[in-house]
Amino acid sequence: MRRLMLLRHAKTESHAPSGRDQDRRLDDRGRSDAAEIGGWIGRHPPFPDSVLVSHAIRARQTWEIAWEAMKDRVPRPQVELLPELYGADPSHLLQTIREASAADPRRLMLVGHNPGMHELALALAGSGDAAGRKRLADNLPTSGLAVFDFEIGDWADVAFRRGRLVLFVSPKLLKQTSGD
């Protein structure tokens, strides 16, 4: 069994001072939401063994803030910055996941961007949490987390429609349910 966690970066400023999209930083809400989702992850094992993070500033900040909120409860995962996650489509993201078989983590997290992350989540969800799948159909919002289990022994075997959505959560959903 393998677990995949897809985390979209948190809310950002509209424009970076440099004018480059990759340089956009988290705004106040984004920093708060990243900490909230990180704290939630830290209270809900199992935790990622390996984390692949887009090189964009907003994705790195999301991971750093989330990690800070969870690090006292979670073993330190292997973290790798991957420029190819920025702007990646679902097929490219799937290939990146399949290549994780070299390091063979049991639980893998990607921190990246829409539309690719949302489209990937929709393409992977073959079964699982019906209410979560319905909410996820609309959007993978900023700081949104989609968790999938795959009945496979190797990441190379991950395929579209083969994932079971375990849960879909976001800071907004956490506020609506007033807790975990």
User: What is the number of beta strands?
Assistant: 7
Named CATH topology: Rossmann fold
How many distinct helices? Answer: 6
* Terminus-to-terminus distance: 25 Å
| CATH fourth-tier homologous superfamily | Phosphoglycerate mutase-like
* Proportion of residues in β-strands: 15-25%
Q: So what's the CATH class?
A: Alpha Beta
Question: What helical percentage do the residues reach?
Answer: 25-40%
Q: What strand order characterises the main sheet?
A: 3-2-4-1-6-7-5
* CATH architecture field: 3-Layer(aba) Sandwich
What's the rounded overall pLDDT mean?
Answer: 93
Q: Give the domain tally.
A: 1
Summing up helix and strand content along with how strands pair, one would put the structural category as alpha/beta
Q: How would you spell out the order of helices and strands?
A: EHEHEHEHEHEEH
Low-confidence stretches: none
Strand count, sense and closure of the main sheet? 7 strands, mixed
Oligomeric form of this entry? Answer: single chain
Tell me the Rg in angstroms. 15 Å
Bulk shape: globular
Biased composition (Basic and acidic residues): 10-31
Protein name: Phosphohistidine phosphatase
Region (Disordered): 1-31
Structural features:
180 residues, alpha/beta, Rossmann fold, 6 helices, globular, His_PPase_superfam, His_Pase_superF_clade-1, Phosphohistidine phosphatase
